[in-house]
Amino acid sequence: MTTGADLLALSPVLPVVVLDEAEQAVPLARALLRGGLRVIELTLRTPAALAAIERVAAEVPDIVVGAGTVTTPEQAEQATKAGAAFLVTPGCTDRLLDAVAETGLPFLPGVSTVSEALRAAERGLSALKFFPAEASGGVAYLRAMGGPLPGLRFCPTGGVTPGNAPEYLALPNVGCVGGTWLTPKEALAAGDFARIGALAAKAAGLRQAAG
Ligand SMILES: O=C(O)C(=O)C[C@H](O)[C@H](O)COP(=O)(O)O
């Protein structure tokens, strides 16, 4: 996997994870794999995230592990050092885009407007995160962006659920969707990885559901 486009093609759903305990990272990654998903985005929203990335990179080679919520150049560097195979940002400033590009890793920059998408395209980036998807106009907005910007492909994230994911996945400019619904807080707190595996299996089947 070397480009953002490769990243969008890995799975119909990119599981976005907020983890409080780094110890949970390996069993969680294995549960996702058992369900048929081979990618995981660990968000840098918790102090445990970098250690979690390190563990998954070292112990679960079959899953592609990346870092989400990358908002500063320092975080881009730390995530790369921890072994992240890709980076995801919620938004895109020039400074942040320069820093993530410098890591050499594939990445998905977050955009929520046509102008932001154009700015990313001017840099040669054609695989983008559409965030926050539902709050920014959802399926209708993304469909409308496809008119003037047919060369761009998106991973809508933020408010995406098993209910609306098929609608997003049916759009020609959507490669995959992202979401936290695969790792409910209660399931993580209870260490219920069987439930997470079952949610992953349903998510892995979503592409067919979208037709
Ligand atoms: O912080 C970031 O960089 C993010 O990645 C934001 C997440 O993608 C969304 O918060 C996921 O939203 P839900 O699936 O609606 O829970």
UniProtKB/TrEMBL annotation:
Alphabetized PROSITE patterns for the sequence: ALDOLASE_KDPG_KHG_1 (PS00159), ALDOLASE_KDPG_KHG_2 (PS00160)
Entry annotated with the keyword Lyase: yes
Catalytic activities: 2-dehydro-3-deoxy-6-phospho-D-gluconate = D-glyceraldehyde 3-phosphate + pyruvate
MF term (GO), any: 2-dehydro-3-deoxy-phosphogluconate aldolase activity
Source domain of life: Bacteria
Record InterPro entries: Aldlse_KDPG_KHG, Aldolase_TIM, KDPG/KHG_AS_1, KDPG/KHG_AS_2
Keyword Metal-binding in record: no
Record pathway: Carbohydrate acid metabolism; 2-dehydro-3-deoxy-D-gluconate degradation; D-glyceraldehyde 3-phosphate and pyruvate from 2-dehydro-3-deoxy-D-gluconate: step 2/2
Entry EC number(s): 4.1.2.14
Keyword vocabulary terms for this entry: Carbohydrate metabolism, Lyase, Schiff base
One Pfam entry name: Aldolase
Subunit comment: Homotrimer.
Family that this chain belongs to: Belongs to the KHG/KDPG aldolase family.
Protein name in UniProt: 2-dehydro-3-deoxy-phosphogluconate aldolase
Organism: Gandjariella thermophila
Gene name in the database record: eda
